[in-house]
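note to self — DONT lose this again. spent like an hour looking for the file last time. sequence + predicted structure for the chain T wanted, 248 res
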Amino acid sequence: MFELSEPMINLLLRIVMAIIAVALACFISNYARSSLERVLSKFGAEFAKRVAEIFRYFIIFIGVVAAISILSLETTILTAIAVIIVVLLIIGLRDVILNLTSEFYLILRRPFKVGDQIKVGDVEGTVRTIKALDTEIITYEGDLVIVPNSYFLKNPIINKSQSIVKHVELRLTFHGKGIGEVRNAVQEVLMEIKPELFGEPEVLTISEKENKVEALVSIPIVNVRKLRWLVAKMARSFSSRGLEVEVE
């Protein structure tokens, strides 16, 4: 009759205990993931799901390390395996963790919301969606830009929708031009300077008197000191269209 030696019995017991450790870690990780998703759901379902998934893998990793320890591998081998796994996790999840951290910052700090007009780095436009890993911005040219959330931690954010806006009225006078030509030119120039403004520029009135056309426009700005620069830019834009303008 075949009899197991004591070392063989001990090895089998360690293997069984190692399997139990991994299975228990998987069970606990699934339960912890569900619980953490419920707790973090107030920050957004997508964010809660991703954080809970990372936490689940971390618990499984602890279970695997415990199983390797139960198998009584040499300390050097155990340490090497643990270091390799940690390094691989850090490399593989680096961008994900950074983006999730950034989203957590966006949720807590709330520097902007969907529909706000913002500028971050070289990207400027209207916020379309805020997701777990990225944010979609529609530029003033109509382009869709997908910005990784980590970008918001590396660059200052200007929220034009939450700034204190002053609406400055400018009277533009054109001599010797028709009202139709002036109306088109004014609309085009206002669209050109729109990226520099904190809202929609507006033509309040436009009328023709004797040999001149007068247009009253409203431009939303925050820094009044920038007004002189904007007026000069508008004058150059009108001049490039063959129109000389007087601004009051």
